[in-house]
Amino acid sequence: MKKAIQLYLKKYGFGHFCPKAVLFDMDGVIYDSMRNHALSWHQSMAAAGIQMDESEAYLYEGMRGVETIKLKARQQWHRELTDEEAQRLYELKASIFSQCPPAPKMEGTEELMRQIKACGLQICVVTGSGQHTLLNKLTKDFPGLIQQDLIVTSYDVKRGKPAPDPYLAGMRKVNTNPWETIVVENAPLGVQAAVAAQCFTIAVNTGPLPDQELTSKGADIIMPDMLTFSQQWETFYKEC
């Protein structure tokens, strides 16, 4: 881990790494929700006449929903959807998602957050989601750990992941610089966004994609799951 930190500092020319905040992605990091998303994406797009396999949900994860819809329509219909058309399809996807079983907390995440708070660091959630059924659960499921005013959603930025905008917005909320910020992501596009914002990026591979999909986007460290990260947090933080 110390080597990864040294490489990070060298890559950007930063003089030191002193974490003051951790920015968490939501789906696949805080909640084990990606299977529900994959299913609802597949079913909603099929209803609209767009082919989208469930596996593609993991590749596009982190992108704003309306941007994913516009991308798929551009690929298959060879035209640009209006914002209104894309929003209607996203509402269909959200409706199907709301009928899925509730997504459980990702094992290890709550304990990791408690350790982070105990170290005096801030926590902010940065998600490309606009799914109110999940967003509204955050402060209830993680009382004292997640604050409503420290959540960045798809409604807060014009450009979603893989653009750096969501993580730049997250840093503004917690008032940190990149060398003071850790990002926890599970999606290739999310990793790309965090790296573009020059944050120290920890990729947790909680989905079916190979590690290479995350390392190729520039992740500084790869963890196999959130529980392992929680167990290694103390060692990691001491090396910062």
> Strand-and-helix sequence, N→C?
HEHHHHHEHHEHEHEHEH
Helical content, roughly? 40-55%
Shape: globular
What gap, in angstroms, lies between the N and C termini? 9 Å
Total beta strand runs? 6
Structural class: alpha/beta
Report Rg: 17 Å
Largest sheet: 6 strands, parallel
Count of discrete alpha- or pi-helical segments spanning 4 or more residues: 12
Question: Which ranges are low-confidence, i.e. pLDDT below 50, for 5 or more consecutive residues?
Answer: none
Our estimate of the beta-strand percent is 5-15%
Mean pLDDT score: 93
* Largest sheet strand order: 3-2-1-4-5-6
General description of the model:
This protein is 48% helix and 10% strand. It is built from twelve helices and six strands. A six-stranded parallel sheet has the order 3-2-1-4-5-6. The radius of gyration is 17 Å and the shape is globular. The protein starts with a helix and ends with a helix.
Key phrases:
10% strand, six-stranded parallel sheet, alpha/beta, globular
What's the helix and strand layout?
Layout lengths: L1 H11 L8 E4 L9 H14 L8 H5 L4 H13 L5 H16 L10 H10 L3 E5 L5 H4 L2 H4 L9 E2 L12 H10 L6 E5 L2 H9 L3 E5 L7 H4 L5 E3 L2 H14 L1
Parallel strand pairs: 1-2, 1-4, 2-3, 4-5, 5-6
Helix pairs in contact: 2-5, 4-5, 6-12
Brief summary of the model shown:
With 240 residues, the protein is of the alpha/beta class.
